[in-house]
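Might you be able to review the protein record set out just below?
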Amino acid sequence: MQSDEGTISTPGAAVPGRAPGGSAHQGRRGFDVLFLLQQFSTEAERYADQVRRRFGLAHKDVHALNEVMQANRAGRPIRAGDIARRLVLSGSATTTVIKRLVAAGHLVRAVDPRDRREVSLQATEHAYRSGRQMFSAMGEEVLAVLDDCTDEEVDVLRRRLPQLTEAVRRAGHRAGEGATGNGAAPGAPVPPGTAPEGPGAAPRTA
């Protein structure tokens, strides 16, 4: 859902607030970019929902699998408790998700070589193959747009997108703790995925 139909694209321009009380952030540079990021996140989540259904995966399955894949790529051990914290799930719900992914051949449990008392999760080649199939269309379309960007524009995205991702992650922690932030007011756009069960997490690609 879009927060405001008055989004404009002029850099640095304020977005007319239509919600009662407006936004405390209105008028700040880049305020309109929040809405553009929200639109991107929403469309990415819609895409993820379409493809996950074709592959018989639940919403939380995709996010759990993505958490495991990211940890595996970084060489970090990841356990059921880590999944529960990241996805804000109960222990029983986390167990259900992991069992479903193991049964589908997407995950295996393995003894953590760094601590043999612990069991870590590993994504299988089947999971990576499915992920490539699921997100190939989106990858092709997005890369086609990036092909038209200059090296400088791509460098900006490469540098800034991780910072924006971390900003949303911090916002999620604050929201989970019940914090509203300094001067937060109704009418400010809320990127999907910053609260449990919310978009979109920005879909995380499996």
Remarks:
- The radius of gyration is 19 Å.
- The chain is about 55% helix and 5% strand.
- Residues 151-176 form the longest helix (26 residues).
- The longest strand covers residues 107-111.
